[in-house]
Amino acid sequence: MEQLLICMSLSLIAGLLASRAAKAVRLPAVTSYLVAGLLLGLGSSFTNATTIETYHLGNIIYEGGLLYTILDIMSKAGSAVFDNLALLFAMGVSIGMAKKEKEVAALSGAIAYLVMNTAISALISAKGGVEAMAANSTTSVLGITTLQMGVFGGILVGLGVAALHNRFYKIELPQVLSFFGGTRFVPIISTVVYLFVGVIMFFLWPVVQSGISHLGTLVLRSGYAGTWIYGILERALIPFGLHHVFYMPFWQTELGGSMTIDGNMVSGAQNIFFAELASKSTTEFSVSATRFMSGKFPFMIFGLPAAAFAMYRAARPEKKKMVGSLLLSAALTSMITGITEPLEFTFLFVAPLMYAVHCVLAGLSYMLMHILNVGVGMTFSGGAIDLTLFGILQGNAKTHWIWIVVVGLVYAVVYYFVFYFMITKLNLKTPGREPDDVEPKLYRRSDVNAAKAEKKAGGSAAVDMVSAMVLKGLGGKANLSDLDCCATRLRVTVQNAELVDDVMLKASGASGVIHKGNGVQVIYGPKVSVIKSNLENFMDTPEADHLDSLFAESEAETTVEETKPEPEQNSAPAEKAAGSGECLTLCTHMNGAAIPLEEVEDEVFSQKILGDGIAIRPAEGKLYAPCDGTIETVFDTRHAVNMTSADGVEILMHIGIDTVKLEGKYFEAHVSDGQAVKKGDLLISFDMEAITAAGCKLTTPMLVCNVDDYAAVTPVAQGTVSVGTTAIQITK
Predict the structure, then answer these.
(1) Catalytic residue at 587?
(2) Which residue intervals of the chain bear CATH 3.30.1360.60?
(3) At what angle do helices 547-554 and 556-563 cross, to 10 degrees?
(4) 8 Å CB contact between 642 and 487
(5) What pLDDT is attached to residue 700?
(6) Is 536 left (phi over 0), alpha (psi -120 to 50) or beta?
(7) Cα–Cα distance, 732 to 707 (Å, whole number)
(8) CB within 8 A of 629, min separation 6: which ones?
(9) How many whole angstroms from its chain centre is CA 415?
(10) Cα separation of 285 and 190, whole Å?
(11) DSSP category for residue 657
């Protein structure tokens, strides 16, 4: 037993390699699995000789006939997805984890995967061919003889290519090689890197494969106890989001067993099941594989809906009608699709003890299916859809699916009475048993995470009212179709521009709001990146869906005008008059022609919303430090720099107009956040011709953002200027 637990712990470690990948491709994978599973399930079911004989379909479905041919095509089309999961993972992980230019990442992932396996194939040939390799260690991928790495080969490629892509997709090469820069460089570097990775994996993977094989043997020898522990852990890890990390190695590697099917060695429980499903020679599905899947069906189709019924029966009479619709929807979702989050996370939220009992019963379900030789597999869930496709349609002789119904009915009774007893005797506040002023609801992962955060904060998790005001000012979460920011402002696309509330946005701290059709720019200055980050985090909280009630509680809607700070300019003259009279200077930030801010082609700068200063139309593509100080922020797009002088002047330098859309192309940073600089140090270099060709103006403002701290900010530079010329005089 101790060895078994060690084995399962190691499976978690192995699965961590795929955790980020699984998140990156979860939704596309589910969709692909579902479609492929439907095709494979229907096609294989009705082309199998046993099924045809059992249901007396020989007169209409026969080899060579039209219907048989269509079903055979469906079977092979579905099988093609599961046969090439590694390639799909290589592309899917690359897409999911790439920041931008995702189509380039996908192509690079496919190329890298082929190159890696081709390198391995060449080394296999050099060593003497398949015969010289260990038994069952090789396979064929798209006609390439390679090592049996399964989906982990694809994940390895996907993670690596995504990292290379994010690092190099904006790279600028010397002029002679400039054609190969940017996104064109990604497939090049991916090819080179994975050529060497292929060589390394040829020597490394057999060692890993041997270890996995021994672990798999230990798991298979663990018997029913091992299956029970597997089931408990699979459910217990759901609150942490690690369940997919745990079961993936069992489904996709030798941890879940290996088997020769139609002359091909297949590893991984799910892979074995679908290979058997596609095989016309299968007379009974291997329980050694389906033991890691079939246990879900009894508690998902029967147990959890019965628990929902127990919660309904335990609800207060006046709330049963409302609670009934919520619980019925959640129960049907669990039964049909196998999606259990609303019910399971409700257990977690109101009574963790209920979830602990559920985990034990779930583990027992896995063990009972193993004992009863139930051979029903699945795509991604344990609902009625998968049961029908991979159990009922395959015939009881092949799957013994009838035991799912028998055990499931018993589970329905057990779940109902156990949970009803716990709810009533322990007075658990399940839906419908809340205080009168609390609306009944089912809980999801976000609610549980929010509760954890509140507990961690000492039970007083504060609502981010600034983000709430921004979101409400933009018309609510449903009104946002796109959210981004540049160096100084939120750039938002809304569904309905009439819902935008400028007063609310200004009350949140915005200096101004600019409307351009359905595009809205909300000016916050250099702190905008923090505003955006906080807003995105707030949108994931439950409060973001209940803004009206939130503002009603805080009385924000009725007091916006009352709480709005008085304009600082009223008191500014007195404060400035009391200044010391000391004069500070900022020098010009580039070579070129100085112009007043009023002539800048962007009203945020021309109207001095963010501060006062000057602008320069550059004569060369270089931005310099106007004084001694510290770099606060070099924006990710490298088109803007925020710094603070040694005397405390807050300075923003913004290269060009709307250059944020270039996403860092043609810009190179020579400094980093927190770096101390001297007057005249090179900060940013940029390609003037390329930026102009891209349709952007090069006018570069330099602003003093904390103008209210000084008696006067006076631009003095005029005409042609060079670096080091006095640009702005600041009077304290």
Answers:
(1) no
(2) 463-563
(3) 60
(4) yes
(5) 94
(6) alpha
(7) 10
(8) 643, 644, 645, 646, 649, 651, 676, 677
(9) 34
(10) 41
(11) B
Mean residue pLDDT of the chain comes to 80
Centroid of chain to Cα 392: 35
CB-based contact 589:623 (threshold 8 Å):
yes
For residue 686, what pLDDT is reported?
94
Q: How far apart are CA 254 and CA 612, in angstroms?
A: 66
Distance between CA atoms of 490 and 493, rounded to whole angstroms?
A: 10
User: Is this model's pTM higher than 0.70 or not?
Assistant: no
At residue 651, the pLDDT reads 92
Q: Which of 202, 83, 214, 194 is nearest to 132 (CA)?
A: 202
CATH C-level class of 578-731: mainly beta
Which pLDDT score, from 0 to 100, does residue 583 have?
87
Lowest mean pLDDT among 261-265, 342-346, 574-578, 639-643: 574-578
Q: Which of 89-93, 202-206, 534-538, 578-582 bottoms out in mean pLDDT, i.e. has the lowest?
A: 578-582
Q: How confident is the model at residue 110 (pLDDT cuts 50, 70, 90)?
A: very high
**Residue 129: is its pLDDT beyond 50?**
yes
Rounded to whole angstroms, how far apart are CA atoms 103 and 96?
10
Q: Which of 7, 486, 696, 705 is catalytic?
A: 486
Helices (H), 222-351: 223-236, 243-252, 269-278, 287-290, 296-297, 304-314, 320-337, 341-350
**Which residue in 165, 654, 696, 705 is the catalytic one?**
654
HEC readout, 621-636: CEEECCCCEEEEEECC
DSSP 554: H
What architecture is the 463-563 domain classified under in CATH? 2-Layer Sandwich (3.30)
Beta pairing, strands 640-645 & 712-715: unpaired
DSSP state of 59: T
Query: Does position 386 have pLDDT exceeding 50, yes or no?
Result: yes
Q: Indicate the pairing of strand 592-596 with strand 264-267.
A: unpaired
What sign does the dihedral 219-223-229-235 (CA atoms) show?
positive
Give CATH 2.70.70.10 domain extents, the chain: 578-731
- Tell me the mean pLDDT in the region 579-588: 81
Which residue pairs from 53-59 have beta carbons closer than 8 angstroms and sit at least 24 positions apart in sequence? 54/395, 54/397
Closest CA to 710 of 694, 730, 695, 693: 730
Per-residue pLDDT for 244 more than 90?
Answer: no
Residues 6+ apart with CB under 8 A from 705: 525, 526, 610, 611, 650, 651, 652
Q: How many residues does the chain have?
A: 732
Percent helix, percent strand, percent coil in the chain, to nearest 5: 60, 15, 30
